[in-house]
Amino acid sequence: METSLHQQLKSLYAGESGETEVRLGDYRIDAVVKGELVEIQHGALGAIRDKIRDLLDSHKVRVVKPIVARKLLVKRDSQGGKIVSRRQSPKRGTLLDIFDDLVHFTRVFPHRRLTLEVLMVDIEEYRYPGHGRRRRWRQNDHQREDQHLVEVHEKHTFRTARDLWQLAPTGLPRPFHTGHLAEGLGVQRWIAQRMAYCFREMQAVRQVGKQGNALLYEPVVRRRRSA
User: Which of 76, 202, 205, 211 has the greatest count of CB atoms below 10 A from its CB?
Assistant: First the structure.
């Protein structure tokens, strides 16, 4: 079932001049604004990979990917029932989470007709017990009822491999490996490995050798000059 979050983002992008829920061939498009197709995808980008590839044959497409920066968990005593508690989720999304999705989207992005827009959002998530009211709350003992948009903090737009390369840290050695990338960003190495895979598949970097078991890379694209 479509969440309120999805509906709110569709309305936000459609504005007063756009249309929502437009049928186009075999597909239903979230919004169409001045000839551009807008797809809101809160789930995995890989799930819409083939759809977006087909649409890009003849249309400009904007894929909107919300990442939850902060989530307020609102618990009800039953579906649609009384609110019994509110608390902030300890999980925090970051912009680098986009690479979790891009590893399954590199055969689509970049494309000359495609814009990828990442929104950092705060949401409220409504839950109710999943096994009856008498069971105590446990970590996974719930059903998600709905999600609501609270605020859009940031919007990041990517159209090219160079746009994504801006997320890499400055001052990387040449060549560099994923250990350098992880250290420069202050993240775990597996995150840097996903980033390096995406950069390589998008031809932002090229593999130039190995240092022990570590692959070595050099950038292919240049950073934009500061204004």
Answer: 205
Domain match, 138 and 203 both: no
Distances (CA, A) of 55 to 52, 61, 64, 68, 154: 5, 7, 15, 27, 27
Confirm whether 227 is domain-assigned.
no
Asked if residue 226 belongs to a domain, the reply is: no
Integer Cα distance of 84 and 110 in angstroms: 46
Query: Could you tell me the residue range of the domain that residue 21 belongs to?
Result: 4-159
Contacts of residues 213-221 at CB distance under 8 Å and 24 or more positions apart, as own/partner, are: 214/177, 214/178, 214/179, 215/177, 215/178, 216/175, 216/176, 216/177, 217/175, 217/176, 217/177, 218/174, 218/175, 218/176, 219/165, 219/168, 219/172, 219/174, 220/161, 221/160, 221/161, 221/162, 221/165
pLDDT digits (tens, 9 = 90+) for 121-144: 999 999 999 765 455 545 567 899
Residue 224 lies in a domain: no
Same domain, 143 and 184: no
